[in-house]
TrEMBL record, chains A, B:
GO molecular function, one term: precorrin-8X methylmutase activity
Species of the source: Ruminiclostridium papyrosolvens DSM 2782
Name of the featured protein: Precorrin-8X methylmutase CbiC/CobH
Keywords for this protein: Cobalamin biosynthesis, Isomerase
Biological process, per Gene Ontology: cobalamin biosynthetic process
One Pfam family in the UniProt entry: CbiC
Cobalamin biosynthesis precorrin-8X methylmutase CobH/CbiC domain ranges (all copies): 8-203
PANTHER family, per database record: COBALT-PRECORRIN-8 METHYLMUTASE
Amino acid sequence: MEIMRPMEIENKSFEIISRELGDRVLDKNCEPVIKRVIHTTADFEYADSLVFSEGVIEKSVEILKAGACIVTDTQMAMAGINKAAVARCGCEVMCFMSNSEVAEQALAEGTTRAAISMRKAAEIEKPLVIVVGNAPTALIELNNLINEDKVKPKLIVGVPVGFVNVVESKELIMKQNIPSIVARGRKGGSNVAAAIVNALLYMASPRDINQ
Amino acid sequence: MEIMRPMEIENKSFEIISRELGDRVLDKNCEPVIKRVIHTTADFEYADSLVFSEGVIEKSVEILKAGACIVTDTQMAMAGINKAAVARCGCEVMCFMSNSEVAEQALAEGTTRAAISMRKAAEIEKPLVIVVGNAPTALIELNNLINEDKVKPKLIVGVPVGFVNVVESKELIMKQNIPSIVARGRKGGSNVAAAIVNALLYMASPRDINQ
């Protein structure tokens, strides 16, 4: 098998994805996000399950270009976000999951570290992008914090995965009047979260071909 | 919605997965791995696509208990592997993807960093577990290195995802006489790779309930 350059592989993958999507019409603005998620998962269900709030792509590009603080609910999602693209946009990425105070507080309250880490995020005063790829408890806590006027993210990427409260937590976020990208249903994941953020970052600041 | 403790959520998720698998009979040894991958992806296709070489679970548990060097093809897979479980088994985890020499060599040779990082892994003299969740080029290079007698991993977790050479690269690895767990077809990912490794680590050394 011939080994190709990374960008050649990516371009060929996107061609295959476009071909297999066939004559399906995707929203032009949302298309790069949908295709990148399919590229990351090889799962075409995302063409149906990703839900975009009105104008979210244009708003996201603007937010990222202005430099936002991106907070993820897992180290994995943080690891998957392209750091060169983050730097080009003047953004920063954080995750509080390995913070020892967060772990202690979660244990004391009988909740998850992900939920507590959303409270830590709410204390940040910069424009916030909240990225949840794993824990529905993070989305539920975020929803509570929004209802209590304790935080107002500029963008929510809500794609936790799983079987307990996952579907419901995403429906809560979609009802908020905040720009959001959500994967309806059980599916999602840290890889999907990172793919969505990367697609938006690449729209905000195109990549060098060697990266 | 009630927020539950992490282990309660996980236990309830596994109950739902077992129920939805219905009367399907899974190999008892492989079951914890299959269920953890479904837990991570909410994708039941993995009950069909995961291919286990003969005796791979018993062999993996033995290898991990003896302390192995686990090398991943992405920072994301490394981030997803439970570090407490790694430490309990006396293992270590490495990833060479952010190594600047690896990047330079990949650019010079017109190949991927993932392929070059497999050559770095081949230089390690400890018992090796190779974990590929993203790049088929890593699996192809690994296959070449095995054929050239330059490396002989104790275990290969081969679950790259995508559209170009992914299916083929996994078939190559399954033909090697090396213990392997592979996700046949296009699907896989860093999250799937980490889930498989974690399932094996938890079998090798059971978790503290609070972790």
